[in-house]
Structures are given as C-alpha cells and as structure tokens.
Design a protein that fits this description.
Elements: E1 8-13, E2 17-21, E3 41-44, E4 50-55, E5 58-63, E6 68-73, E7 78-83, E8 89-94, E9 108-112, E10 118-122, E11 133-134, E12 141-145, E13 148-152, E14 163-166, E15 170-175, E16 182-187, E17 195-201, E18 211-215, E19 220-225, E20 231-237, E21 251-258, E22 264-266, E23 275-280, E24 286-291, E25 296-302, E26 307-314, E27 318-321, E28 327-331, E29 339-344, E30 350-355, E31 361-364, E32 370-375, E33 385-390, E34 395-400, E35 404-409, H1 432-440, E36 492-493, E37 496-497, E38 507-508, H2 512-516, H3 525-538, E39 543-544, E40 546-548, E41 556-558, H4 576-599, H5 606-613, H6 615-628
Antiparallel strand pairs: 1-2, 1-35, 3-4, 4-5, 5-6, 7-8, 8-9, 9-10, 11-12, 12-13, 13-14, 15-16, 16-17, 17-18, 19-20, 20-21, 21-22, 23-24, 24-25, 25-26, 27-28, 28-29, 29-30, 31-32, 32-33, 33-34, 36-37, 38-39, 40-41
Length: 629
C-alpha cells in the first residue's frame, strides 16, 4: 500500500507564493521554486495531486507532493484557473476584449494537463460562475449560457454540445456530486412571478424535473448539495430588506429538497433574523444552521429537517464539520470577535474554545485534527498571517506574511488518510515558530479597569452617581433632583466647593404657590410686583436651605432651623436590609412577568428560563431577611 500523501498548505501574498509542509515542523518545501513576479491566483486539484498558479505571462502546473514542474502554459493575462475533479483538465478565464476582426473573444479555455494542448474554448463575459461543472467521474461537463444549459463529454470536446435544455429565467445552476448526478436550476422571481428551483437528472435532461419548489422573496440563492448528491439545501435571499432591518437584504427561507422528489420542506427556524451560515455534514445525514439576530442560534438538523441538538445562542456566523464528521467548529468572524468553539459530534460537548481574532479564512485540515485560520488582505491589512491550531485548542504553528491574499490546505481524499481515532488525539508539541512568535509579539497594553468619568469629575474622588458595583472607593453621593450634575473641579467659596446653579444661603423660602407654578411662563409686571410685595412682607424670617459640597465630597445641608428632611425618593432613609428586600421583590415581579409570557405560549430565551429557576432561592432569601428584620 502506498504511503499517505503528506499534509501541506499553500499561501499567496503580494510579493511571494509558497508551499509549506505539515506537522510537526511546518518547514517550507525547498524544491518549490516561486516565480519572480507576483502570482494572481493559485489552485489545488480536488484530489490534491496537482498545484497550479497564474502569473502575468502564463500558468505553471506542479506535482503537489514533490513540487516538480509538469507544465508551463504561455497564456498572458489569465485571471482565474480551475481543475477538473480528477485533475485531467485545467480551465482558464481572462477578461474579454474586443478583437480587431470583430470576432467573439473566446476567453474561457480548457487545456489538457498532461499535454498542455488546448481542447476547447468558449466566450464567457462574467467572471461570476465562469467555471465548468464536472461530474466526479469527469464523464460530463455542464455550463449555463444565457438561459440554456449545455452538456459536454470531456473525452469528446470536439463534438461540442451533446445535450442541452432551455429553462426560462434560469440564473444559476449547481451540479450535484455523487454517482447519479442531478442538476439544480434556480429561477429568480421576476415581475411578480415567484422564484423556483427545479431539479433535473443529468442523464435524462429532457424529462420533466424530478423535484421543483416555488417561493417568494428570492432574488438570489445559495445552493449546497450533500456529499452523496441525494439532497440539497437552498437559501433564498432578496437584495433589499423591505423592513429596513438589514443592509444586506432579507432572508426568504431555508429549504430542503430531495433529488428523487420524494421529500421537500421548509426548515423551521424559531429565531427571527437572517441565516448567517449553513453546512452539510460529510456523512450527508445531517446539517447545521446558524440563524437569527445576534446573538445567533445554532441548531443541528437531520436529513428530514428535524432538530437534533440546540447549541444555544452565541455571537457566531460560521459553521464547519471536519472531513471525518467527528468535530464541529462554530465561530464568529468578520465584525465579530473571532472566538471558535469546537464540539465533539458524538457527545455534543464542547472540546475547547480558540481565540482566533481577525480571522478572514478558516478551514479544517484533511485529517480533521487541525484548524487553519488566516488573516487576509484586503479585508485586513495588518497582522496578516497563518495560524494552525490543534483541535484540542493549542496553537501549533504561526507564519506571519505581509499582505497575504490567499491560504488553503492541500486537499486529500478522506479514504486515503488514517481514520479519526475514537478518542480525540492529544496535541503535538508546537513548532519552533510558535515560540519565536511569542518572543517577537508585542505585549498588549493593559489599561486599568474603571468607570468612565466626565471631564468635570476627573482627578477627584468618584461620587456615588458614578460608582460601579465593585469595591472601588467613592465619595458621598451627589444631591438628587436638579442638583445631580457633577461639580466642576477647582471652584471653591469660603473653603467649600461651589455647586454651579445652587442658590446661595440665605435665600427666600419657595412658597407653595411657586411650587405649583414651576415650569409655567413668566408672569407679567403685575404678578412680579405682587411677588415682590409678598417677599418683602415675609422679610428674612424664614430661609430656604442651601446646598454646599465641601472638598471631601460630603454634603452639608444648612437651614435656618438647622434641620432639613431627606430628599424624597432617595435611599438615605433605607437600611441595607430594606434595600435588599426591595431588590428581591423587584426580581420576583420580573419572574412573574416571565411566567405570564410563558403561559401565553411565548418562547423564552435560555437566560430567561434560568431566571425563572431562581424563584425558589429568591423567596427563601426574602423570608430569611424578613425574619431577621
């Protein structure tokens, strides 16, 4: 038996391209000779045998294992390349141009990898969806031209189209894997007509579709077949969200269809919001979906769209099964923090959590034991590089590369590699690059935690108005009501800090009539004269209390009679036990409201259910406090 091919990954940056060997050392492959000019793209073949990259002057094809050059095609201006599943054919695409003789520019060309001969060429204006779609045996190749599906036999390219089908309004097609290939055709909604998906058997393209489904809110779609090609998931979306809840359009729905036509349904998602990601398990029997407004919910469904497990809510938008279907990675990338949770599919328990911040690309290794994360340009132009993590959490390799554009593992068929062990394997020792990165990495600046203070209160003891629920010291609370703003520093009168806006002492008492008229418009001169007369009659027999704040922050309330009642609504009159009782009663009231919602049939979040479970504990604590008081 031949030895299993070694794991490796490839990368492409602005000024470099390279192949790197896998565990344990992750050494660059010395036999690979990079080009002198920047590469535009690179691709591995699906079986991992071949590696090719495009440069401004042509395309070079290598044997991936030994990095030996096999073919060099002199093709200028190639933008993208693609291999057939078995690596027999290489397709290239270049931007279309107007030819001098007026002929149509055939910018999609197919070459034989072994001989370098051009076999066929087509005209393809758009780069989106330009690739030919092959069956896994390479017996047929399919492409969509306008609204016509064209079928070719790669062994007989010269015969041209061997079968075709015109589907009115067809926008995208997706060929299934598997031994009995099917073709899913998506037709977008137009002029009030609903969108639809039709599934045809590739061997009987002229026959009626084996399965079809119509739906609204579908201007574009994502179509994902399972590995066997027996079922397909279809996510429909609109370009514009009519409710203005999302800048990226509105999710129409997630549908599950069978290629045989014996089953179709809409996947029930019980949380409002978009579908962030969905993925089939390699065993073709289950799939995972991340959906809902953040924090999003992650669910595992079987092949009949029945829920198998709820992973709860978290800030995530990425899900991926490892090639052996044993581990599941659930992560939040893009504008999320980059936390990756890895779960064991057998026990559905969390194995570890990885902090892979600023990740642009994430991919399982072919053996299912390592996770590659990369920070790519132009998504982020700083801290570009590749990190390899073991499935149990440790970082095993780091490679920092300026302006990194592309990174990926070399594909290896699952049946060629040793099976995933029953017990999750232990992590190997980290490569030397990890230690080098740790010594070079800049220490993150640590800022002391503390509450925000406005400029007028900085440099002073914090008042209770700004005090957090921690043990940080604070001064006395600022007065309630209209005197609750922080005093400006450095303003003292007679040894005491002056509160801006506070009246000076002594001052006239506010009469009950004035209290009722507060906030009304100013009176005319007559009312003002009457008010002056009343004030003069009262003299200075009674004075309103004034508020001064001494330098240490303690309140001093001075009054003519020497005593003033506490401010209504303040907590000064409550002892700690009474405050505790009041807070517990508030919690009980909130729990009663949640129970009422539950009785009405509303679905509660996990945190709300946990809150209801604490009712007995709160009542017990409340009873103990009432006994002691």
């Amino acid at each position: 038996m031949a030895s299993a091919p070694s794991q490796q990954y490839a990368y492409r940056a602005q000024k470099s391209i390279g192949l790197v060997g896998g565990t344990p050392n992750y050494d660059p492959i010395d036999s690979f000779q990079p080009p002198d000019v920047p590469a535009r793209t690179y691709k591995y073949s699906s079986d991992g045998r071949l590696f090719a990259y495009a440069i401004p002057t042509g395309v070079r094809i290598y044997q991936a294992e030994s990095a030996q050059l096999l073919q060099e095609l002199s093709l200028p201006n190639i933008v993208d390349i693609s291999f057939s599943p078995r690596g027999t054919y290489l397709s290239t695409w270049e931007r279309p141009v107007k030819l001098e003789d007026g002929a149509q520019h055939k910018n999609l060309r197919v070459f034989s990898v072994s001989t370098g001969e051009e076999l066929v060429a087509f005209s393809q204006k758009s780069q989106e969806g330009w690739e030919l779609q092959y069956t896994i045996s390479e017996s047929h190749a399919v492409r969509l031209v306008g609204q016509e599906i064209q079928v070719f036999r790669p062994v007989e390219w010269s015969k041209g189209v061997v079968d075709k089908l015109k589907v009115e309004g067809a926008t995208t097609i997706t060929l299934s894997p598997g031994l009995n290939p099917s073709l899913a055709v998506f037709i977008a909604e137009k002029k009030g007509q609903p969108a639809s998906v039709k599934i045809f058997s590739l061997t009987a393209l002229g026959a009626p579709p084996t399965c079809q489904k119509t739906f609204f809110k579908a201007q574009r779609s994502q179509i994902k077949w399972n590995t066997l090609g027996t079922q397909v998931l279809i996510l429909t979306q609109t370009d514009v969200d009519q409710a203005n809840k999302s800048y990226y359009g509105e999710t129409g729905g997630l549908y599950l269809l069978s290629a045989a036509g014996n089953f179709d349904c809409r996947v029930t998602l019980d949380k409002e919001g978009p579908v962030h990601d969905f993925a089939w398990s390699p065993n073709s029997k289950e799939f995972g979906v991340i959906y809902g407004y953040m924090p999003a919910k992650t669910m595992l469904f079987d092949q009949r769209a029945r829920s198998l497990h709820d992973f709860g809510t978290a800030f995530c938008n990425f899900i991926s099964f490892n090639p052996q279907a044993r581990l599941i990675a659930i992560a939040g990338f893009g504008n999320l923090a980059g936390k990756v949770d890895i779960y064991d599919r057998r026990t559905l328990s969390k194995v570890t959590t990885i902090d892979a911040s600023n990740t642009s690309h994430c991919e399982w290794s072919p053996d299912g034991r390592f996770l590659l994360t990369a920070t790519l340009s132009p998504r982020l132009r700083v801290d570009n590089g590749i990190k390899v993590w073991h499935c149990t959490g440790p970082l095993v390799h780091v490679q920092l590369i300026d302006e990194l554009y592309q990174a990926s593992w070399r594909p290896i068929p699952v049946d060629v590699l040793p099976p995933f062990p029953q017990a999750i394997p232990a992590a190997p020792a980290p490569a030397p690059s990890v230690n080098q990165h740790a010594t070079v990495a800049k220490p993150a600046p640590t800022k002391p935690a503390g509450a925000y203070r406005p400029p007028g209160a900085r440099g002073l003891e914090a008042s209770a108005a700004y005090k957090r629920e921690d043990d940080t010291p604070s001064g006395g609370s600022t007065p309630n009501g209209r005197f609750s703003r922080s005093p400006a520093p450095g303003r003292f009168q007679n040894g005491r800090r002056h509160v801006p806006g506070a009246p000076t002492s002594p001052s006239p008492v506010r009469h009950s009539g004035d209290q009722e008229k507060r906030g009304r418009k100013k009176k005319g001169p007559k009312d003002g004269a009457k008010k002056d007369a009343v004030a003069a009659a009262g003299g200075e027999a009674s004075a309103r209390p004034s508020i001064d704040i001494p330098p240490n922050g303690a309140e001093v309330i001075a009054a003519a009679n020497g005593s003033v009642p506490p401010t209504p609504g303040g907590d000064n009159g409550l002892d700690p036990t009474a405050k505790k009782v009041r807070n517990l009663n508030k919690k009980l009231k909130a729990i009663e409201e949640l129970k009422e919602k539950q009785k009405k049939g509303e679905r509660l979040e996990a945190t709300q259910l946990k809150k209801i479970d604490t009712e007995a504990e709160i009542r017990k604590e409340l009873a103990a406090l009432e006994i002691t008081s």
